[in-house]
Amino acid sequence: MKQTTYIILTIITLIFIVVFTLQNTSEVIVNLLLWNIKTSLALLIFSLFSLGVLISILIFTPVIMSLKSSLKKDEKIISKLRGSHKENSDLEQLNPLE
User: How far is 18 from 16, CA to CA, in rounded Å?
Assistant: First the structure.
């Protein structure tokens, strides 16, 4: 079921991309400092979207790696605390306070 949903969503997304590309075939001129680039509007939008995704990945990768490292350290501390708590409760069962 999950794979079928994924395939259907992929097909729908591809249909939208094709329709978007066919409706935005007009050429635009991009002036950037000394460069004049003439390209289709769909290609320009797709390129800028891809650049934005790439920049986001580059910015957030170190943050995600840092959070994962912090999570692993915290999980080790939690497992040690659980182990010491279990040992303490086992000792209390052996020698209950009267």
Answer: 5
Token pair belonging to 65: 């790696």
pLDDT in tens, 37-70: 898 888 888 888 999 999 999 999 999 999 999 9
| SS3 at position 94 | helix
Distance (Å) of CA 68 to CA 9, 58, 77, 80 = 30, 16, 14, 19
Q: Tell me how far apart the alpha carbons of residues 56 and 65 are, in angstroms, rounded to a whole number.
A: 14
The whole-angstrom separation of Cα 46 and Cα 5 is 25
The contacts of residue 12 (CB under 8 Å, 6+ apart) are none
> Closest Cα partner for 28 from 17, 16, 18, 43?
43
- Kindly report whether the global pTM for this prediction surpasses the value 0.70: no
User: Mind giving me the DSSP string for 39-59?
Assistant: EEHHHHHHHHHHHHHHHHHHH
Question: What whole-number distance in Å separates Cα of residue 50 and Cα of residue 52?
Answer: 5
